[in-house]
């Protein structure tokens, strides 16, 4: 499967690499936040001689990871590190962990080990105003937008009006690239994204109850 590199975000992350900020990637579901983190991780290993053991990553989309406490998560990460190296910590969908900010701030404030921390989360649970309260000025926001028409056009090497109309219908969500010309696969995926956004983000955010 071909993968579209999100070069603009990768370069921005590199610009802030090792700076004393917690890097926060936010955006609606399926914009490619996890893919960008994975691409960034590969870039660090390939071009900056970062060892694989310096990468510590967790994906909290996995239900088996969601029951860990913020304190156990913190201790688990610290045990994987030593004071002689910088460690790059990727915490994907961190909002699934109760009081996650205590773990993240703990890593940020650790005086013995250098952690460069990157987290992702959906807009419904990681709004900028709330991050400012939770992380008290320690973070740098990266708002992840859908793939633009120009990026799609360059990737597929198509610039026709027909392709533009296709983009208007199918959009630029991150998961759609490998299915872009197969509506039998793309339509159900986009429908699922819409349903999850309404049910898990909008309703959750505003505590909206369903009524029969």
Strand and helix order: HEHEHEHEHEHHH
- What is the residue-averaged pLDDT? 85
Structural class: alpha/beta
What is the straight-line distance between the termini?
42 Å
Q: Outline the low-pLDDT stretches.
A: none
| Morphology | globular
User: How big is the Rg?
Assistant: 19 Å
Percent strand: 15-25%
Q: Helix tally?
A: 8
Describe the sheet with the most strands.
5 strands, parallel
What is the number of beta strands? 5
Would you write up a description of this structure?
This protein is α/β, with parallel strands linked by helices. It has eight helices and five strands. A five-stranded parallel β-sheet has the order 2-3-4-1-5, sandwiched between helices. The protein is globular, with a radius of gyration of 19 Å. The model has no long low-confidence stretch (mean pLDDT 85).
Give the secondary structure arrangement, pairings included.
Layout: H1 7-15, E1 22-27, H2 33-47, E2 55-59, H3 70-79, E3 86-92, H4 100-109, E4 114-122, H5 128-135, E5 139-143, H6 149-156, H7 161-170, H8 183-206
Parallel strand pairs: 1-4, 1-5, 2-3, 3-4
Helix pairs in contact: 1-2, 3-4
């Amino acid at each position: 499967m071909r993968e579209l590199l999100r070069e603009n975000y990768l370069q921005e992350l590199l610009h802030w690499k090792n700076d004393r900020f917690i890097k926060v990637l936010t955006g609606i579901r399926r914009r490619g936040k996890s893919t960008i983190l994975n691409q960034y991780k590969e870039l660090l290993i390939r071009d900056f001689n970062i060892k694989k053991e310096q990468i510590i990553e967790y994906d909290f989309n996995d239900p088996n990871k969601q029951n860990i406490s913020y304190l156990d998560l913190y201790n688990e990460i610290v045990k994987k590190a030593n004071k002689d190296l910088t460690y790059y910590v990727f915490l994907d969908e961190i909002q699934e962990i109760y009081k996650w900010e205590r773990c993240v701030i703990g890593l940020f404030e650790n005086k013995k080990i250098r952690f460069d921390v990157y987290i992702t989360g959906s807009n419904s649970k990681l709004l900028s105003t709330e991050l400012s309260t939770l992380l008290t000025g320690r973070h740098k926001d990266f708002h992840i937008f859908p793939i633009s028409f120009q990026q799609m056009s360059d990737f597929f090497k198509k610039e026709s009006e027909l392709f533009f109309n296709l983009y208007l219908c199918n959009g630029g969500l991150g998961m759609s690239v490998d299915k872009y010309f197969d509506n039998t696969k793309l339509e159900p995926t986009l429908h699922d994204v819409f349903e999850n956004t309404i049910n898990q983000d909008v309703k959750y955010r505003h505590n909206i109850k369903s009524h029969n």
